């Protein structure tokens, strides 16, 4: 039971790091970036290349994934995304889904289609036996790391100057500009940061899930469910949504209730059930702002 | 305006070129074509690449002549999507006038092409897909790969012989997985064993943790695994992470899990794992040594796996049938020629069951060992001439 909770927590935390960048771009910048998963995949592959080709440990792979993905994100934002900010959502979707397919084909070409394996550092390998529960060290690392990251993000957004400028730019870009805030720069930085986080999440997750060129499509659904359930424009919304979905997903696959002697496999659809329920009762998401602000 | 016009013109030019070229090629009387439909991109791309490499190797070794005719191979990519497989099969039959269609990386893909094989009376050589029912979908289907029940039964029998009483199964939730589960569960129950639970993970499921945890909590003697080729490494990583060995739970599987192509990447943690399968790159025979050496020479950094052998033997079957019919490409005659054919493949002696058109072959029990610095499935027991148990059971009734 505790192990299930623990696994779910680790899974949820990972989902959060993967999806939070998307929540920022979608909620704060009102831009639908379906290519978010492509950045996550890139981060994973950067870690793989660092470890396999250069023999470095995952501890180097993680920051490298963050920095490189952030730079790539910034370049793409300046050259491509910036042209689509004022376009309709449909055009944004078309553009970013195109990017997803291009990234998948590129990875397939350069890295091959077979799943890549990431070895966790020796120090994080194995299980911690606590008598009543056995805990995987790497998953524990993921939980602690992500929890710290969440605190930093939340503080960064609510307490720093950059955070308040960002919130101002989102609420009313025109007024913010009038007050001398460089909105373009802030958006570019935010986008780069979000992409970097996706890359970081990809690198963290690569050691738990397998990494293959289908990654962006496989996880796109999870990202979108997290955003739909958690609501956008806050950090806490997607955070709790990720945890909820992670735990529910893992528990749903572990427990198979029996009804009338038939085993009901609920694992596959338990997260969608949660999403549907949340959307019925709170269409703006669990923590989203009410519409019509 | 500019954009649209040029694009349209380009497409038109390509179409013209394509239609102009096709009849030319088709008119060559002495050429027999075989259309091979494989997933060359997408999640099952490794299957496609292995089979393509094997087919090229076969033609490089045996030449391109069979039954007095030149054999031309056309390879098409269906990306692993059944609708595309069906369309490609149709195009190959109608436009390219192929004498046979072959390939088929996954069960749904093989089934999608079956009605076309039946209607056009064209042999469909299944080189990869492993669900038992496939050969029943059309009287023109002949299989050179394997069936899941065929590969699963021996490991279940091995488990019973080695003191395994209580088992849990975990399979991918689709045709072949359910075949494997059914065979394993029936064999264990028939042998007096107990099945504690049968778990099914969604095919596209990156997180096996809950299923593995549940299997562990049930404390069986053995956990049986099946996932399709290409998914094994990801599963084994999580299996190792869960620490089954510490609880004295044996982890056994079909050879799909310790696929030769991925085995080396799985690391030492899979050492000693027992699986049953129809092919290992380590199989000890002169035919296989020659095959592996030639394959690795032609494809550096690639090791032939069971998929490649299915492709290689599929070509051997087609060549053999053409030789028998003396170049006659009538589909019914070709299938009749294939029935009962027997030859020595790199995997050992194999034959086509005349009654079911399915492959009959040895199944080996293997253990993962390190040899010359690489991981291999080393065979230590042979179950000779295994027929597909599902169809054998039906015929017995």
Question: Could you describe the 3D structure shown?
Answer:
- The complex is a heterodimer of chains A (293) and B (397).
- Chain A has 293 residues and is mainly α.
- Chain A has 11 helices and 4 strands, in the order H-H-H-H-E-E-H-H-H-H-H-H-E-E-H.
- Helix content of chain A is 69%, strand content 3%.
- A two-stranded antiparallel sheet of chain A has the order 1-2. Chain A has a two-stranded antiparallel sheet with strand order 3-4.
- The radius of gyration of chain A is 19 Å and the shape is globular.
- The N and C termini of chain A lie far apart (42 Å).
- The longest helix of chain B has 26 residues, at 2-27.
- Chain B folds into 2 domains: 31-146 and 286-357, Rossmann fold, CATH 3.40.50; 149-277 and 363-396, Rossmann fold (3-Layer(aba) Sandwich).
- Chain B has 397 residues and is α/β, with parallel strands linked by helices.
- The radius of gyration of chain B is 22 Å and the shape is globular.
- Chain B is 45% helix and 23% strand.
Give structural attributes.
heterodimer; A: two-stranded antiparallel sheet; 11 helices; B: 397 residues; alpha/beta; Rossmann fold; 2 domains; nine-stranded mixed sheet; six-stranded mixed sheet; globular
What layout of secondary structure does this protein have?
The complex is a heterodimer of chains A (293) and B (397).
Chain A: H1 2-28, H2 36-54, H3 58-79, H4 89-111, E1 127-129, E2 134-136, H5 137-159, H6 161-171, H7 173-178, H8 183-206, H9 215-230, H10 236-254, E3 258-259, E4 262-263, H11 270-281
Antiparallel strand pairs in A: 1-2, 3-4
Helix pairs in contact in A: 1-5, 1-8, 1-9, 1-10, 2-3, 2-4, 2-8, 2-9, 3-8, 5-6, 6-8, 9-10, 9-11
Chain B: H1 2-27, E1 31-38, H2 45-62, E2 65-66, E3 69-77, H3 82-94, E4 100-103, H4 107-120, E5 124-126, E6 141-143, H5 148-161, E7 166-172, H6 175-190, E8 194-201, H7 209-217, E9 222-226, H8 232-242, E10 250-254, H9 260-266, E11 274-277, H10 286-298, H11 306-325, H12 331-338, E12 342-345, E13 348-352, E14 359-371, E15 374-386, H13 389-396
Parallel strand pairs in B: 1-3, 1-4, 4-5, 5-6, 7-8, 7-9, 9-10, 10-11
Antiparallel strand pairs in B: 2-3, 11-14, 12-13, 13-14, 14-15
Helix pairs in contact in B: 2-11, 3-4, 5-6, 8-9, 11-12
């Amino acid at each position: 039971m505790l192990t299930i909770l623990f696994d779910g927590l680790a899974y949820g935390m990972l989902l959060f790091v993967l999806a939070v960048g998307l929540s920022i771009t979608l909620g704060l910048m009102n831009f639908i970036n379906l290519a978010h998963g492509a950045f996550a995949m890139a981060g994973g592959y950067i870690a793989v290349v660092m470890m396999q080709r250069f023999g470095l440990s995952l501890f180097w792979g993680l920051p490298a994934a963050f920095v490189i993905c952030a730079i790539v994100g910034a370049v793409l934002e300046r050259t491509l995304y910036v042209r689509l900010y004022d376009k309709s959502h449909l055009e944004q979707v078309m553009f970013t889904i195109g990017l997803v397919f291009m990234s998948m084909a590129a990875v397939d070409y350069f890295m091959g289609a077979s799943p890549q394996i990431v070895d966790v550092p020796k120090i994080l390998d194995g299980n911690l036996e606590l008598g009543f529960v056995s805990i995987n060290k790497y998953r524990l690392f993921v939980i602690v790391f992500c929890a710290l990251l969440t605190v930093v993000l939340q503080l960064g957004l609510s307490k720093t100057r950059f955070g308040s400028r960002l919130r101002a730019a989102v609420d009313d870009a025109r007024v913010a500009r009038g007050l001398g805030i460089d909105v373009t720069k802030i958006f570019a930085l935010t986008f780069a940061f979000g992409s970097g986080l996706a890359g970081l999440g990809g690198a963290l997750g690569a050691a738990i899930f397998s990494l293959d060129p289908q990654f962006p499509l496989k996880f796109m659904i999870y990202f979108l469910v997290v955003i739909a359930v958690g609501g956008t424009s806050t950090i806490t919304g997607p955070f709790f949504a990720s945890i909820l979905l992670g735990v529910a997903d893992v528990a749903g696959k572990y427990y198979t209730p029996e009804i009338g002697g038939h085993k009901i496999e609920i694992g596959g659809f338990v997260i969608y059930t949660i999403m549907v329920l949340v959307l019925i009762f709170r269409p703006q998401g669990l923590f989203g702002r009410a519409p019509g602000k | 305006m500019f954009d649209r016009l040029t694009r349209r013109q380009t497409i038109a030019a390509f179409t013209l070129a394509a239609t102009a070229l096709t009849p030319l090629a088709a008119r060559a009387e002495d050429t027999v074509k075989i259309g091979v439909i494989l997933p060359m991109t997408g999640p099952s791309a490794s299957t496609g690449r292995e089979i393509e490499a094997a087919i090229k190797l076969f033609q490089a070794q045996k030449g391109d002549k069979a039954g007095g005719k030149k054999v031309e191979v056309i390879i098409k990519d269906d990306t692993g999507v059944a609708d595309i497989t069906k369309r490609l099969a149709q195009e190959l039959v109608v436009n390219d006038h192929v004498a046979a269609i072959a390939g088929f990386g996954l069960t749904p893909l093989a089934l999608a092409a079956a009605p076309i094989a039946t209607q056009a009376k064209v042999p469909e050589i299944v080189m990869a897909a492993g669900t038992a029912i496939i050969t029943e979908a059309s009287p023109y289907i002949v299989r050179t790969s394997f069936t899941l029940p065929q590969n699963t039964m021996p490991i279940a029998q091995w488990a019973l012989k080695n003191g395994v009483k209580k088992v849990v199964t975990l399979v991918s939730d689709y045709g072949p997985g359910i075949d494997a589960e059914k065979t394993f569960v029936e064999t264990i129950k028939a042998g007096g064993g107990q099945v504690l639970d049968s778990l099914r993970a969604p095919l596209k499921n990156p997180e096996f943790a809950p299923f593995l945890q549940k299997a562990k909590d049930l404390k069986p003697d053995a956990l049986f695994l099946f996932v399709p080729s290409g998914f094994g490494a990801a599963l084994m990583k999580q299996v190792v992470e869960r620490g089954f060995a510490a609880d004295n739970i044996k982890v056994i599987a079909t050879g799909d899990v310790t696929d030769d192509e991925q085995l080396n990447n799985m690391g030492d943690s899979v050492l000693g794992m027992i699986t049953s399968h129809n092919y290992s790159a380590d199989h000890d025979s002169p035919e296989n040594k020659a095959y592996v050496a030639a394959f690795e020479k032609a494809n550096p950094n690639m090791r032939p796996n069971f998929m490649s052998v299915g492709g290689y033997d599929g070509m051997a079957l087609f060549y053999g049938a053409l030789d028998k019919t003396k170049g006659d490409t009538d589909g019914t005659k070709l299938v009749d020629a294939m029935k009962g054919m027997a030859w020595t493949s790199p995997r050992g002696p194999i034959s086509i069951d005349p009654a079911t058109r399915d492959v009959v072959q040895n199944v080996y029990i293997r253990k993962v060992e390190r040899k010359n610095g690489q991981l291999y499935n080393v065979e230590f027991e042979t179950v000779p001439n295994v027929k597909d148990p599902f169809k054998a059971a039906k015929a017995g009734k």
